[in-house]
Design brief:
The strands form six sheets. The chain has a five-stranded mixed β-sheet with strand order 4-5-6-10-7. It has a five-stranded mixed β-sheet with strand order 15-14-16-17-18, sandwiched between helices. Helix 6 packs parallel to helix 8 and helix 10 runs antiparallel to helix 11. By secondary structure, it is an alpha/beta fold. The chain contains 13 helices and 18 strands. The longest helix has 19 residues. Helix content is 40%, strand content 22%. The radius of gyration is 25 Å and the shape is elongated. The protein folds into two domains: 175 residues, CbiD-like (2-Layer Sandwich), CATH 3.30.2110.10; 176 residues, no CATH class.
Length: 374
């Protein structure tokens, strides 16, 4: 195989390798700790049943019997090719036998696993940030290997992650009211590279958390720069109101409507706003190209001469249009008519079930324009 072709093939393979969730790795560690107590000896591999029903062999990085009633096991997370902040995290389980609680399995969090402080996540406030599916999966794996022990003892399962608090700073946990560590997550046990499903779920969850806290306003942004921009411009709003929707415009708006939100603010740049103005449900660049005829019409409404309008209509990006309008000294007018188109498109689509404010920043994240009610 030619070297160039070989490199291309390797890149594709690396980009599609699946991994395992924090929940699956924690269940494997819990199973290993329980199995070591049953056998009376540490184990170096364990066959774990995932939430989706498949069985997977996990390497156990560490396994120690601390005492006749305590064992510890560590499984290192392999996220595959997903750019996950918890990749290589050491999911650690300390399992304790408790005679007074025969048959019961209690889950708790140790250092590096978050504590829930707010409602809206489907988890107990002040409890561990271990989602319901991983909780169930951890218990099932323990029960499969330690049924005899459970007839005599209860078990306390303490999950910890070294450096977990540091990892959590790169997640949405603090905004969702999860403090001091990461969450133990996963509905199937499998991590799919660059999963859009995971991001979509986080958008829905973030909005629902804000609703549980009786917030009436949701601020939707398309990325990090736009989020920093609106947070800076709206200091009166609590952090839970700010939701990065990415490209999931329809998901975000539907969730707001379904939860009775009556006030929505959208912070975005010109390219995403052009997609919204043309009625796209998903604003990703690969889904549908920007309708440059529409952008040219907006430029015309802003006062651009016809030669510039024609030039814009043949261009590829809305950013190009904004650059031409800046040169003409008509950028404020352009933003005004763009924001009007976005408001009309979205309010018509949702039959005016909410009020809508549009906030526009430039490509450096600086405020350029906003439009509320007219």
């Amino acid at each position: 195989m030619p070297e160039a072709a070989k490199k291309k093939s390797n890149r594709k393979k690396r980009g599609n390798r699946k991994g395992f969730t924090t929940g699956a790795c924690t269940a494997a560690a819990a199973r290993a700790a329980a199995l070591s107590l049953v056998k009376g000896a540490p184990v170096d591999t364990v066959c774990c049943c995932l939430p989706n029903g498949t069985e997977v062999n996990f390497a156990v990085a560490e396994c120690d019997i601390i005492s006749p009633v305590q064992a510890r096991a560590v499984v290192i997370k392999d996220a595959g090719d997903d750019p996950d902040v918890t990749d290589k995290a050491r999911l650690t389980v300390d399992l304790y036998l408790i005679r007074e609680m025969a048959g019961k399995i209690i889950l708790d969090n140790g250092p590096g696993v978050g504590t829930v402080t707010q409602e809206g996540l489907g988890l107990k406030v002040n409890g561990p940030a271990i989602n319901p599916v991983p909780q169930k999966n951890i218990r099932e794996n323990i029960q499969q290997v330690a049924a005899d022990l459970l007839r005599k003892y209860g078990m306390k399962v303490v999950v910890s992650v070294p450096e977990g608090e540091k990892m959590a700073k790169r997640t949405l946990n603090e905004r969702l009211g999860i403090i001091n560590g990461i969450s133990i997550l996963g509905t199937s046990g499998i991590v799919h590279p660059w999963s859009t499903a995971a991001f979509r779920s986080s958008v829905i969850q973030s909005i629902e958390v804000a609703v549980k806290q009786q917030q009436q306003t949701i601020v939707l942004t398309t990325g990090g720069r736009t989020e920093k921009f609106v947070i800076r411009e709206l200091p009166e709003l609590p952090s839970v109101c700010f939701v990065q929707m990415g490209d999931f415009l329809k998901v975000a708006l539907d969730t707001c409507v379904n939860n009775g939100i009556r006030r929505i603010i959208i912070g975005a740049m010109v390219g995403k706003l052009a997609k919204m103005a043309q009625g796209e449900n998903i604003t990703h660049a690969r889904k549908n190209p920007v309708n440059m005829t529409l952008v040219a019409d907006i430029a015309r409404a802003a006062g651009a001469p016809e030669d510039v309008v024609d030039d814009i209509s043949r261009a590829d990006t809305a950013r190009y249009a904004s650059e031409q309008m800046i040169q003409l000294g008509l950028i404020d007018e352009f933003y005004y008519h763009l924001a009007r188109r976005v408001r009309k498109t979205l309010l018509d689509k949702y039959e005016h079930q909410f009020s809508l404010k549009i906030m526009i920043c430039d490509f450096e994240g600086n405020k350029r324009f906003e439009l509320d009610s007219e």
